[in-house]
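Comment on this:
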Amino acid sequence: MIESPLLSHPLLVESLRPEVTLIVGILLLIIVPNLGKATARIPMTQIRIPVLLGGERFRATSDPLIPGVISMFTLLLAMASSLMTFVEGTALSTVCISANGALQQGCTGSDYILRADAFSRMFTSIFSFALLVGTAAMINRMPAKVDARAPHPDSSDSMRARAIRTLLNNRRQGDFHLLILFVALGMNIVALSTHLFLLFIGLELASLAIYVLVAFMKEETTSGEAATKYFLTGSVASAVTLYGMSLLYIWSGSAFDYASATLNLTGPQGLAATWAAMDTLEPLAAIGFGMLLVGFGFKVSAVPFHFAAPDAYSGTSSPMASILATASKAMGFVALLRILVVMAGPEAGSPAFWLPLFGLLSVITMTWGNLAALSTENPKRMLAYSSVAHAGYLLAALAAIGSGMADESTNQLLITAVVFHLLVLAFFKSGAFLVLTMTEIKGDSSSMESLHGLGRRDPIIAVAMFVFMLALAGVPPLSGFLSKFLVIDGIISASTASGSMTAAGAIDWLQSVHWVFWLAVSMALNSALSLFYYLRIGQVMFFEKAKSILPLPDAPMIRITVILCLILTIISGLGPFSQTLVDMATMAAQHLLKV
């Protein structure tokens, strides 16, 4: 193990490349648009020197397209930096930063607060991709025009409204892209954190920026209401989470010796070690742990903490809804995996105390989400409830981890399935919301009528949307099928560790399996149920008559991104690329289990 002071360590920048890239991008977004011809006078003289910040802006730096270019390149470089972990092998496989400011390679037997490994880098890659897709879509959803002019006094009302909208879009480019990079930085902190309070800081940094972004298109009548509901419920969830952390901090101090209290998950005196040392579950620990689950349950849209999600998805712009459904959900599951696997994981042969709760919660969440999606006429709201159902599928995998019957290889398979599902979900869920973004630009995405006749109006986009729906339903050979198959396979492996099919018959075999097996059955039945509303999208696109024969807008950036998501959805379900992604998810699972 190599340990040296943080700022002087040669691997500091190299091990935190994605975060350094994001910080540089944030600084560029603050500085570059404000570069101008301002000067300052030297005291006691008439000499003025250029200070470059303020005054009349340079023509090159006043271009409203610059913030979008900076944010997209920043996110692209951050994603590439994260993926380099898997290319470099074990050279930088595990790097940790401790609370006393030391950077270590190996991270063995020490208290650290940040851990950069394959697990955290897999999720920073997911965050960067999902945010990059949403940012690319906003290039056309909130277009900037270089030579925008104020409306002429004699122009018509419609022309004045259009000109004002263009000027408004130009002025808010910097704010939007700056908030996006703050979301990315907060999510990266969550992925790296092995200290609960630092994890909370990352959650809040990302969440506060997301609340603003949900309401960012303030000219839309529904965005303000959606953001208000999301902010109020999110604030309550954050307060509950923080209170739960305070209870765990008090509990972790031995005999109320608060000098030994900690919120570190790792180390000889960390929460994981203290939790494992309990003979029986202590009330303070159980209450604090339960409060953490309330906060993280809101982030993943688990029932009954999901009620703000459909309103937020349907009320905000479609690119922001795609970020909520992919990056924000992945952030919540990072926190859950840290808590459930690292801190409160089951002992060998003994189930975790939270197993019944998670088993019940997963069934209710997936069933409620699918039933609600069946009855909605709003495609964005339908995808929101679909996101709730997918949270239920992943909660079933976490429940199987808590069964205590699975060996290390089965737990690794379950974590691999969760990570892989969140990865490929970013492909087809983002793609579906991008298609809705195109209908939104045209004027409406709040009803199924916006998709009527899309097969004739824009065949390529319609086919892409249909493939995304099939992937969400889990139809082979698409990536959605492979991810669900891995989850179900892991659950069955965990539930049948003590029994296997023999000549005694199926009844004896069913009696020998753990009740977690029925979570896999519930997941299969719910996946079949979801086919009804996913296939309905295909039915209205190809068989319903459109009210308008006008094609979708050109939106070149969105079209390119839709095609990219379509290709990734297909090739990540079969062939060598899918195997590469599974191997990456497996490496991430291995590193989480080593914490």
Residues 408-442 form the longest helix (35 residues). The mean pLDDT is 83. DSSP finds 22 helices and six strands in the chain.
